[in-house]
Amino acid sequence: MKQLLIILSAALLLCLPHASVAQSDDDRGYLQAFLEDSLSGAGRQVRIVGFAGALSSRATIDELTIADDEGIWLTLRDVSLDWSRSALLTGRLEVTELSVAEVLLPRKPVTPDTIDVPAPEASGGFSIPDLPVSVNIEQVKAGRVEIGEPVFGQAAVITLNGSAKLADGEGTARIEVNRVDGTKGEVTLAATYANATDVLDLELTVSEDDGGILSTLMALPDNPSIDLTVAGSGPLDDFVADITLATDDTPRLDGSVTLKGTPSDTATGDDGTTTAPATDRSFALDLGGDIAPMFAPRYGAFFGDDITLKSSGTLFADGRLTLDTLDLNTRSLTLSGNLALASGGWPTVIALNGRIADAEGTPVLLPLPGEQTQIDNATLGVRFDAASGDGWDADIAVNGLNQPTLKLGTLTLKGDGTLTQGEGASLGGVMGQLTYAIDGIELTDTALAEAVGPRIDGGLNFDWTEDAPLKLSQIDLTGADYGLTGQAQLDGMTQDLNLSVAGNMTLTAANLSRFSEISGQDLQGATKFDAQFTFAPITGAFDVDLQGTGDNLAVGIPQADPLITGQSRLTLTAARDETGTRIDNFEIATDQLNATVSGTLSSDASDLQVAARVNETSLVQPGLNGPATLNGAIRQAGNDFTVDVRATGPGGVDLNVDGTLALVEGALGRINADINGSVQSLEPYSQLAGRDLSGSANITSQGWVDLRDYTFDLKTDLTGRNLSAGIPQADGLLRGDSTLSVVARRDGTVTNIETFRLASDHITASVTGTLGTDDGSLRVDARVPDASVVAPALTGAATLNGTLRQTGTDWAVDMRATGPGRADVRVAGVVPIVDGAPHRITGTVEGAVQSLSPYSALAGRQLAGAVNINAKGWYDPRDATFDITTDATAQNLGTGIPQVDQLLRGASSLDLAARKAADQPLIVDRLNLKTSQLQAAITASTSGADTTLNFDASLRDIGLFTDGINGPATAKGTAEQVGDNWRVNIDATGPEGTTATVRGEVATDASRANIDVAGAAPIGLANTFIAPNIAAGQARFDLSLNGPLALASVSGRISTDNARLVLPEQNITLAPIVTTVNLAGGRATLDTTATVSTGGTIRISGPVSLDAPNTADLAIAVNNVRITDPKLYDTTINGTGSVQGALTGGAAIKADLTLGTTEIRVPEGGAEAAPLLDGLTHVNEPAAVRATRARAGLIEEPDDTAAGGSNSRIAFPIDITLRAPARIFVRGRGLDAELGGTLRITGTTANVVPIGRFDLIRGRFDILTKRLDLIEGSAQLQGGFDPYIRFVAETSASDTTIRITVEGLASAPEITFTSTPDKPDDEILAQLLFGRGLDKISPLQAVQLAAAVRTLTGKGGGGLLNGIRERFGLDDLDIVTDENGETGARVGKYVTDNIYTDVTVGAKGDAEVNLNLTISPSLTARGSVASDGETGLGLFFEKDY
């Protein structure tokens, strides 16, 4: 009801003399102004209707409303004031009636969401305003007061009646409030008092039904009915008032207040004489009952069922006061004590003891608002007795405080000191010390818990004497690693509350990281602040001197942290008084930053000087380097702020800004500015811009912009040199000197571009015109003299000219562009703009390009030919619908794609008409494509909602795309729209039995299909893609697609007839190849068997997933496959393998293969191939010739991977084991060796890692008449079928040990000679062959030496013995010499895989048979028998290390 009382009081103030005299004929205007001044607060609007009678004894108002930002919140109707104006002349105020017929209060007023920023000036001192003269009202009446639910929590309608009278020492008051909306509610107050009899009559009655206003406001459980009475009558010396309170007709509280007066023993006057007896007044309060039901049930344990409050005391005539008893008891609370005050108000006795605890020891839930609060127990004690001395002490302890968001183990507050009473001239005072400790702090808010820590300690000392300031010293607050210390002084506590605080404080934080989470920033470092200050809370005046330091500070902002690391310093010296705020110095200084602010602040005349310097900008923004500065002044004149600043930075930036900012109702309005500056190099700002910048620029700009409606008037001139933005097409245009001039203004919604001109050596461009009117237009002109600056491959000029004209919301576009290749294109159309977005665009495009070749580099392929195009139609960007027709002709078009270029050679034409409706498929009404090789036609016919497409295409010769297959190919058919489907019927034919039929239906939205595809095609169609390999045969297919357009919906069968594959590089032909592929369930099951031309078969079978990553599980069987290279090797392979995993990458290739008898030939040499012409360049090479050279391996394709390209082949992991226990023979150039072992090939197909090798079993090395046994030998693969071999033979001649090493690829090994002692190669060879030095051999021996060299270099042929061995199928044939010099012949042959035998026959007819049995790779049994009867048998264990 506060608002109602304000209005009634304001109306009553009209009775005062000054109000009546001040009235004018404009009654309404004065009263409205008066009420607006009386009702303080922002956002309130007062409106008065029908005000009359201001100068009479009866003033009336028909209606008065008060509104805020959300509308009217208070309405008064039929307000009247009936009073006696003449009574004022006798010093009496007589009001007959003050009434209002209706009051509407639907809600409380809304407080604006604005933040009142304190003014820079301090306010005046605090003072209690003088109250107006007292007012006596005979009758106050409100006929109907409607209160909305938001006010009390429920809607209510009440009436109010009352009267008051104060005259001749007697007073009466009567107030009645009744609820009249169907719910009972009554408040009655009747009181009288007479000075003559000292008798007080008081009766207060409050009664309302359940769910009433009081129970709602008090939030009583179940909103019970309430009945309250306070009644008493009698003289004040013997007065008793009885108090009763009941809810739901159940007594809750009853008791009494008793006042007694007894004559004082004596009363002493100022002169010490005894005066008339005075009265000592005693009082007693006795209340009790069960009030627990009036609180939430959970508080029942605290209150219990019986609460008592008893208190008694006496106010003596000489001013002394005693509170003899104070006892408050509930189930969990006891509070007792007594108090005595001397006549001067100083305590003489204080005794207060309290305890909160549950008798059973359980936690106590306190009846406090807000979060639920429990404690284990709490104690309170305060003690002082002047009779025992001047010492006092107090303590408070709380244990086990528990809230949902906070827990405290213990909280203690202790104090002690002295209290001295003032007597006579001596002044009283109190002093002492307080200490506190909070331990076991637990917070559910982890950020707050980290900041506060588990414990806080502290304390302070205080000292206060009458008429003196309160002094606080040794102030201490200590946390985990932070603290606050200092001292302060409070003055003015007795001077109308004009308080002032002075002191000095020190704040430290040794680890700011604990405040990171609560601040939302990654804080680091340590800080300390020292402040000396004075502060007046009422006026807001202050004077502060702040000194702060920091150590390795960080705030988690990458741009700021490098500037504040290390040692930092903050200084603030400032003061505030009635004239404003003065900043003598505000400075932040670090190793990299220095910033200062000084000046004055006031509401309408501020003046600030600012300066800042960053020593190294690279710390703030990578890429920048060097310092940056800002210097200037900000001055205020009323609502205008003048800014005059200069900024410098990296790259020689020097910018001056001189402007004015106007504030309108607290927001920025018009900004006027002059800007001029330069930058010597934009390169340092490249990283900031995210692109490579360079060049220099100068800029001048003048004008204004109004942020309220975004109108402006600007003029800008920019000059640049070698400007670059990292955009090659634009950078070329700005090379050298360039200028940009802009003159533009915006008035209301109309923007006028008077000048927009860009000019350089490489471009001139201009735009002029008007925007925002119904007939606006823009003129665009641009010319690039040499297009090569935009695209290096282009030459010649390029232009763009035209207009954009506005008619209402439509923009008409008329543009013409010319360019290299004699390109000339014109675009005309209309673009409607509705709600800022384009709608259906209509237009035409006409143009021609006489030569496409200049655009090859832009297209990334070799273009050629000429083209003419005419197109018209419309396009709607809202739903991507369109309707276009195109007519284009071309001559000798080239795309750089040989297969396509063959089709486009000569004259070609295209006639196209296509359209697309919303949510409908693309419809090609007409398509006619004609070239020298290809003809295609599509026509559409429409019947009702259905459309039928007919197409007919023919290719003159399919041989354009594949070798060995020639002849025409045709495809024709129909696609008929039937409801939501397209019915497809297609027939295709081609040479060599190529046929295909497609029958079925496809959904118009391409979501599903049910079609069958059957036919046959020559496998040779793939030859272009598998060259130089060649495929032949026929593939037959019978497939279906039923379901979504996905491979999982495909089923059917593919098979081959008479298929064959020629692999020329491997000298292998696979024929016949029998293949079947069954497709179902999203995978293809493959079964292929191929016969190898050199012998043997290969079979591959298993499933492959059709969807990526094409997971396969293929089994491979190799059966007696012969692999041969007549010059290098000849072997057979048996075994199995598998391919498991994703064929798009990652599939594992595994195999376990066994080699049969293997011959590795070291080439003996022969006629060398004719040398190729190195460096030969083919000019205008025909495609057929290039294809032939490619198949012959005479063209080296570029290696994309070497250049970091992305076209590297996919690597697959491999694990292949090659087993050959024996019978790997290496022969040639005098070498004859047998090897065996196991080789494992691992790694990937891109990086093969062999493990193991084939090692020497036996062997020799022949050179002329010398035969050397091999002591070491091996063969292994290193990424191809050309094995890497190493063999070592050793012998002695004279005093020389000779070693011969054959090492390298089998196709071209190197032979080296070494000796001990070291000798030249020819000397070593002479010693080996003839046992003598080179200077001692005969001419015949020299010829023999040359022959030996020829054999070693591969020029000597295989020899007679090698020919005989091969003719008779022997594994070994040799002529040997024994230790006696006798010659013999040795023949060797493998009987089985692990049994080898040789027979040696001497010149005298003696013979010897040897037999070797290989039991394991390390264990061999050997036996021999000679013609002379000598035999031998032995076991041999061999192992390589």
UniProtKB/TrEMBL annotation:
<protein>
    <recommendedName>
        <fullName>Translocation and assembly module TamB C-terminal domain-containing protein</fullName>
    </recommendedName>
</protein>
<dbReference type="GO" id="GO:0009306">
    <property type="term" value="P:protein secretion"/>
</dbReference>
<dbReference type="Pfam" id="PF04357">
    <property type="entry name" value="TamB"/>
</dbReference>
<keyword id="KW-0812">Transmembrane</keyword>
<feature type="domain" description="Translocation and assembly module TamB C-terminal">
    <location>
        <begin position="1090"/>
        <end position="1441"/>
    </location>
</feature>
<feature type="region of interest" description="Disordered">
    <location>
        <begin position="252"/>
        <end position="277"/>
    </location>
</feature>
<keyword id="KW-0472">Membrane</keyword>
<feature type="signal peptide">
    <location>
        <begin position="1"/>
        <end position="22"/>
    </location>
</feature>
<dbReference type="InterPro" id="IPR007452">
    <property type="entry name" value="TamB_C"/>
</dbReference>
<keyword id="KW-0732">Signal</keyword>
<dbReference type="GO" id="GO:0005886">
    <property type="term" value="C:plasma membrane"/>
</dbReference>
<keyword id="KW-1133">Transmembrane helix</keyword>
<feature type="compositionally biased region" description="Low complexity">
    <location>
        <begin position="261"/>
        <end position="277"/>
    </location>
</feature>
